[in-house]
Amino acid sequence: MQMGCYGIGVTRILGAAIEQGHDERGIVWPDAIAPFRVVLCPIGWDRSDAVREAALRLHDELEVLGVDTMLDDRGERPGAMFADWELIGVPHRVVLSDRGLKEGQLEIQGRREPVASKVAISDTVRVLRERLRAWSPSRPARRESESIVRIGPTAAIHIARCGAALVSWACACSVAMAGAQVEEPLANSVRSALAAAVADSAPPRAGFETIEERLAYLRWLGSMSERLKRRKSEHATRVEFLEALWYESRRAGLEPELVLGLVQVESGFRKYAVSRAGAIGYMQVMPFWAHLIGDGDPARLFHMQANLRFGCVILRHYLQMERGDLFLALGRYNGSRGR
Predict the structure, then answer these.
(1) Which of 88, 168, 180, 254 keeps 20 to 30 A from 31, CA to CA?
(2) What pLDDT digit, counting tens, does each position of 313-326 carry?
(3) How far is CA 180 from CA 19, 116, 164, 184, 333, in A?
(4) Which whole-number Å values give the CA distances from 126 to 7, 140, 326, in the listed order?
């Protein structure tokens, strides 16, 4: 017996929309079907009362006018915050900061726009309404008697990360080609050492003994940042990635250039890349490592620093297994060893 089903359903529309509207950073939703039409990104949410009050006030004004608005209240750094919302694909982003508020300005950027536009605080709502009206009408405005419920960003971020495989499938450039690392039995001492190396929560801050070392690092950072412009257009995101990669590679006793090359080959510098074998993130780490030496949560591998740390620790482990033979160690890493 053969059976087929043909039709246009909600899930198929979403899949088609992602396939037609995406880039290397994630989904680019049309305004009409976006889960949220505007996201507010307050820089310094957890440090500045002025930023927090301005963000809450703008959120409420937009909601009253019928604009579905998400307020990111996680207190994340700008690079990580922007990258998350680019992945989700919210059409319009508004950035609030202490510096901007002192100047009487906010930044508005469309998902397809290369740079942000500065707008006077008093004109923000008007400019957003004009942008939204050009695409599709918003839902009816709320009556004054209706209450406003603020939705935190956690659920949206979780949904986006769980849907990273869908994004990777939809983006022709996002299909990572990494093979499957083999889950091998580890001695208890090795497992304990690897788990300790991964669990260390030291922040990715470079330390230098001499001024020459610091200058060499800054030259490296500037050179690599320039090379990565085509892959990561946001300067803050680019620098944050390079700082974490440099720290984690040096921490594991690896050359940063080696790790950069591995990231380029394995994932093409895509944070949410998922290979056909199930390897995750920048360094294409297999989920079983999260259970073997981590806290058992594979979703952590989508976090930039966690992924780089796992990848560097695993590569160092493979180098030790292969007695320093880089060719064989990389073969183990991408699952091609012995093939």
Answers:
(1) 168
(2) 999 999 998 888 88
(3) 26, 40, 18, 12, 8
(4) 40, 17, 58
CB within 8 Å of 163: residues ≥ 6 apart: none
| 237: its two tokens | 């995101």
- pLDDT tens digits, 72-90: 988 888 888 898 898 888 9
Task: Locate the domains of the chain by residue range.
Answer: 10-162, 173-333
Q: What are phi and psi of 38, to 5 degrees?
A: -135, 140
Residues 184-223 have pLDDT tens digits of 666 676 677 777 767 765 556 667 778 888 888 889 899 8
Angle at 309 between CA 328 and CA 174, to 5 degrees: 75
Residue of 254, 244, 227 whose CA lies nearest to 306: 244
Q: Which CATH class is domain 10-162?
A: alpha beta
CA 246, 250, 255, 259 torsion-angle sign: negative
| Helices 49-64/124-133 angle, 10° precision | 40
CA atoms within 13 A on the CB side of 41: 20
pLDDT in tens, 3-27: 555 555 666 677 778 878 888 788 8
Name the strand (E) or helix (H) holding 26. Answer: strand 26-27
pLDDT digits (tens, 9 = 90+) for 276-292: 788 888 999 998 988 88
Q: Taking all residues of the chain, what is their mean pLDDT, rounded to a whole number?
A: 80
Q: Is 233 exposed, middle or buried (0-12, 13-18, 19+ CB in 10 A)?
A: middle
Phi, psi of 42 (to 5 degrees): -85, 120
